[in-house]
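SEQUENCE-TO-STRUCTURE ENTRY
===========================

Subject: a protein chain together with a token-level encoding of how that chain folds.

Sequence line: the amino acid chain in single-letter code, read from start to end.

Question of interest: how does this chain fold, as expressed in backbone structure tokens?
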Amino acid sequence: MWVDEVTGVLREAAEVAILPRFRALADGEVTEKAPGEVVTVADREAELLIGQRLRGIVDAPVVGEESTAADPGLLAALREAPVAWVVDPLDGTANFVAGRPEFAVMAALVRSGETVAAWIVQPVGGNVYVAEKGAGAWRDGVRLHRAPASGDPADLRGAVLTRFLASAARARVAAVTPRFAEVGQGAMCAGVDYPRLVEGEVDFVLYQRSLPWDHAPGSLLLTEAGGVARHLDGAPYRPSDTRSRPLLDAADEATWETVRALLP
């Protein structure tokens, strides 16, 4: 599944377009693409490089975060094309702009609407996570398996990104938070939060949006390691379902059910 080739592409993008600008962004290299959401020259340059290289590996449409912001019609490829790439050239852009190291470069290969391969590269620290449908999840060549979490909510640690919640929903989350051992905001980067969930640092993460570039890579990493990625209505995550709606990721089936019963 071209694991090494794609890993090399993401590493190249990090080395050429991203890391030279980390904590060194110039005036004018950061703009607001939507209220409260920023984009940098590093995002755009990395996506261009990654898209060109990936089409040389598998000649298929590339659904990138930045190109889709300019042309939302690109999302149709995830439903209609036999094969498509999904690319998040710089996940955690706000962290990157703020000089925090929690950002990642991610890609996934989607076939017939399902993610079949995934890559997450964390440029600071150099961690590489890969997954292939039916073949497992790996970190730097070591196979990953997510152990089941405790059945007691008081032992569970999780993250709920409340940024996009309405005030009433935010209040409901605050009301149930004491039932858990810990509930934080997460890293504000799916390319960090998914590996933390797989490796046992947290037991669940609730996202309010399910954009494909954020979740196609991490959801496959999680499910191949034994975890669960499902919407609150119980439907499994699929990148071809491009409706942005809440997504609950958990260490195992029992944890998913426990958390779903408590969270709004």
Remarks:
- The chain has nine helices and 14 strands.
- The chain has a mean pLDDT of 95.
- The first strand starts at residue 30 and ends at 34.
- Residues 153-262 form a domain with the D-Maltodextrin-Binding Protein; domain 2 fold (CATH 3.40.190.80).
